[in-house]
Each structure stands twice: as structure tokens, then as C-alpha cells.
Amino acid sequence: MGERRFRVRPAGPGDVPALGRFGAQLFVAHYEYDRQRFMPPPGQLEDGYGGFLESQLHRDDVIVLVAEDEGAVVGYVYAGVEPLSWMELRDEAGFVHDVYVDPAARGHGVATALVEAAAAWLAGKGMPRVMLWTAARNPEAQRFFERLGFRHTMIEMTREAPSGE
Predict the structure, then answer these.
(1) Would residue 2 count as lying in a domain?
(2) What are residue 95's DSSP bridge partners?
(3) pLDDT at residue 2 tops 60
(4) What was the pLDDT predicted at 23?
(5) 3-state secondary structure (DSSP) of residue 119
(6) What long-range pairs does 44-47 form, CB within 8 A, spacing at least 24?
(7) SS3 (DSSP) at 63
(8) pTM score of the predicted model
(9) Which terminus has fewer CB within 10 Å in the chain: N or C?
(10) Is residue 158 situated within a structural domain?
């Protein structure tokens, strides 16, 4: 594959098809990790996810960045400022909601560049920390985030409602 020279930049309306495609892949991956916890992929998933991310592009408290390699979008990150939450027992914080890199572009620092760019943007917004969630059944992502300095702080647990016997 050779040396990759990608750049990270803010996403724009022209990136929506790629954002929708990658967001849909991220969505499906989570559903495959745990079909009871994650909602099933709806019809028109790419259009729906792309439309959602497009709706975030002009918010002041959110950043959507893409990594571009020779004119093609190869990954994205979606992050934002989350207010104080008494329910989560945390102060205002930055939150990385999504990070996805096309499998063909992995292993070249794209995800690291995206996460670090989002973290820098969040720091510029005065966020004292950056948080994120990973699927319990995605240890590869957990190891990646640990290498970037993230630590485990909470463990989500899920139990299905008892059936009405």
C-alpha cells in the first residue's frame, strides 16, 4: 500500500455520502457485537446516518472531521461538548461519539490523527477531559484507545426485561 499521505479536515456537505456509508458500517458492527443491546439497522441506514451527521456540521458544540487520502474520504470522527450530567456523575466533558476508518486505510495513523484532532478541538472548547464508549466486544478498539491514553472508568451492563410468563 505504500506511504499514505492523508489530511484531516472539517467535514462538509460533499462528504455526507461517505459519512453515511461509514456511519452505517459502524452501526452494523455494533449491532453484530450484541443484537439485544444495539438496535437493528433500519432501512435506508446510510441515508439516515448521513443525514444525522450532516445535521451536526454547523453546530458550535460539535465537530465532524474527515480524513482524506488523494481526494477520497477514508475515515471520520464525530465529537462534541457534553454538559454536566448528574446522572453520569460527571462534569462537562468532551465526548468522542464515533470514530471510523475504512478497513483499507487502517494501520497508517488515520484513527489516531482523527481522535487527536477531535481532542485538540475539544481542549480548545475548554473541555478538561475527553470521554468515549466502546463496545464491550470490541477489544481491538479498547486497546487502541488505551494506547492513546484513555482509561476504563465505567462498565455498562445490560439485562433484558423478563418475559411475561
Answers:
(1) no
(2) 80, 131
(3) no
(4) 97
(5) helix
(6) 45/20, 46/17, 46/20, 46/21, 47/20
(7) strand
(8) 0.94
(9) C
(10) no
